[in-house]
Amino acid sequence: MFGKRKEKAGPRTYATGQDVELANSHELKDATSHQHKHHDPRFNHNGHKVTRGIHPDGESGRRGFHPHHFLRISGRSASKLSMIVNILWPFVPAAIAVRYTHPGAHEWIFALNYIAMVPSANLLGFAGQELARKLPKVFGVVLEVFLGGIVEIILFMVLLSKNVDDPADVEHYNNFVPVIRAAILGSILANVLLCMGCCFFAGGMRRDEQEFDAAISEVGSGLLLTAGFGLIIPAAFVTSLSGSTSVEVDPQGLSDKALTISRVTSIVLFLAFLLYAWFQMHTHHGIYDAVLEKDEARDQDRHKDLKKAKLTLTECILALVISISLVSLHAVFLVEQIEYLVRERGISDMGIGLILVPFIEKAAENLTAVDEAWDNQMNFALSHVLGSSIQTALFNGPLVVIVGWGLHKAMDLNFEIFNAVILILAIIVAGSFLRDRKSNYLEGALCVFIYIIIAVAAFTYPNPHHGAAGTNEPEASTDGAHKLRLMR
């Protein structure tokens, strides 16, 4: 009898902890298969019930807006580096106050707003990252990169709106087109040299080598080289004809042709961006999904990130609104001071456009990429670095040309030959480091060194006699070579 009772009782009890774990795993598989049939898991890793349409990793377990949670989570930010940046928030009200109380303190206004842009952009990047967690992986990364480029778009549009390139209007003359052109290329340089170099260096400090997937590196570097080639076509066109002895050159006609080429090039590049987005998010999204999931598995801190409290959808949208408003305000205040810095302080407009503007607009996004490289998520880091560069080359740059077209402003892509050469060389250097799909701290340091050399050259680059940002006294000249110089 005892034997029969034991036989009946056997299935109802578990003799060891291993049996319990095995049974629980079977139950989990059954529950998971049931959940997959309904597309949305019922509960995520933190035990929060998952809202339909929200990815489990981004489920906060809350609804609406809670001020205490919002401030605590936003202050924590995405990483330790980003959290340190939040100590700069006192500069935000200080920058706004000085702008209105001491409008003649140009250096202070520029410096304070330049610093205040960092925490504002950091909040924008964090809100984008929190929103991206709630979406499918590939779409979330693309959206996060796009939101990171909002700062750049705002700065370009503010510069374009303040541009008055009619020499007859001496009182209001401000030609910011050279600054915008330099900022377009400077943004790409900041990504492929400075940010990628910092990612390689940070990751290489913890490991001998880091590996990344060809789907990220080869497609990204190939697109970047194609975009760079397209961007410098107008500059190559003008430079070749202006130095020609066999062709009679009309400076104004050449300028008009360069403007036409720039507008057509911008439309083509814009279409290329849409095709790239379709390729990444629709036809080949499975490849990117697998690559990014593999990267997540290598993240040593993933369990900590999953346990962190998340913003709700409402809080994400609110953070985006606040950060975009602040970034726009600081951008306006910054641009207002460029004229004074160039004219009175002699700062090169090339240095402002190629180095200062891109450095501040990419600061928050670069911190995210470096943190991912530190956590051995090189595919995520390169997705941010290359994705942001591709967005600048294929979307942001062409967008400002097309908007200028609509506003009847002569915004073209007739870059200085100095800019065009360093752009192509930088893309080639970055592509050579990406080719073997491995990175180390030496490659990272070399990229940063190249960027430093370019920065020194940019700040020592002389301003043109006419057409520089902030030159209020246009000079008349009949010299053909001088006129060609002014077109830039």
Task: Give a structural overview.
- The protein has about 500 residues and is an all-alpha fold.
- The chain has 20 helices and two strands.
- It has a two-stranded antiparallel ribbon with strand order 1-2.
- It is globular, with a radius of gyration of 26 Å.
- The N terminus and C terminus are likely disordered.
Summarize the structure.
This protein has 488 residues and is mainly α. The chain has helices spanning 2-9, 17-37, 67-76, 80-85, 91-101, 106-133, 137-148, 150-161, 177-204, 214-242, 251-283, 285-298, 302-307, 313-343, 349-361, 363-374, 378-406, 417-434, 441-459, 480-486; strands at 210-211, 438-439.
Mean pLDDT: 79
- Tell me how many strands there are: 2
Largest sheet: 2 strands, antiparallel
Rg result: 26 Å
- Strands side by side in the biggest sheet: 1-2
- Could you give the distance between the termini? 101 Å
**Overall morphology:** globular
Helical content band = over 70%
List the helices and strands in order.
Answer: HHHHHHHHHEHHHHHHHHHEHH
Count helical runs: 20
Which structural class fits the helix and strand makeup? mainly alpha
Strand content: under 5%
pLDDT under 50 segments (min length 5)?
Answer: 1-38, 466-488
